[in-house]
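Q: Give me the 3D complex with iron/sulfur cluster.
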Amino acid sequence: MSIASLYVDRQVADLPETRRICSRLGMPAAYVENAEQLYADLAAAEDPVGSGKKRLFLTRNKGAFLKECPGTRHYTCCGYRILHIGSYCIMDCSYCILQAYFHPPLLQYYVNHEELFRELERCFGARGIQRIGTGEFTDSLIWEPWTELSRTLAMRFARQDRAVLELKTKTANIDGLLDLAHRQKTILAWSLNTERVIHSEERGTASLGARLRAAARSAEAGFPVAFHFDPVLIYEGGEAEYRQVVDRLFDAVAAERIVWISLGAFRFMPDLKAVIRKRFPGSTIIYGEFIAGLDGKARYFKPLRMQALRSLAQAIRRRSPTTCVYLCMEDDEVWRHALDVTPAERGGLARMLDEAAVKHCGLQAEAGGR
Ligand code: SF4
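A: Here is the predicted complex, encoded as structure tokens.
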């Protein structure tokens, strides 16, 4: 999918990053005095959610660049911080929460990088280990063709020993990063799913083979790598297919290079259901056995997700008993069933992940010192 229209917030028109992106895109820009009008035009489009993926708006992040991950108090949260570089995505996954999260959803990229790096400097001076990712409100590497931000961030993270950057993606856009002296402070991470799910639910993403080849090349270049099985979907024959993905993963990448693997069963806010029905009429993912979770999201009936997550975790353990595996947004009962342990028995999830980052990324700060 490519950008059809470029919009530039008049206030950032002269910033160096704006000029670089405009020149790389090589397309005429419409200058925006009033973003509200742009949002209103998008909301009036026939498919605002799909349209927003093709309209790029270069603007200023008026809030904080670093945010706490919006976990909920009901489920175990990992203490991750989000670096808010932009929002939304050019790829198109049926289950993508961002379709219902932004009103209206619009591809926005923040160009006030001076402020971004000032905030990061302050963060590097804080006590304890920081795990920071750019892939929560967007895909980390969709911006590569037009920007050098990932590269600049990786070089900045390489000059300190307290924080690790995770770039999470469903692309294979790593060519601009492989030659960096990254000092293991950048983790390249892939969201994985079965061939069937990628084919039916993840439009415009890199194939499973391309993601794994990119991960293998990153590991060869000395990068720590990570994987996220999220969302895990439950369907007939799914367990066997997820096990095959695990085997392909460990055939492609040496276990010693893997910092962590997360597992998260499919869950969705009620608002997303109508969007999926309308935009992905052939998708059946919303018709499983769901119950409302404590955070208001629909989740698979607990015994079903415990079984699916356990099967996947066991396949990982068979290939690598020591790799850090964790669950995203689950309670102790699910942890116990899927992984035979609760986070508290390991000192807490944040500590587990801090320790994995210390081991694989050479961080110096004392683990758990947040
Ligand atoms: S790749 Fe990620 S951010 Fe992009 S559409 Fe898919 S789920 Fe959403």
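A quick observation: The radius of gyration is 20 Å.
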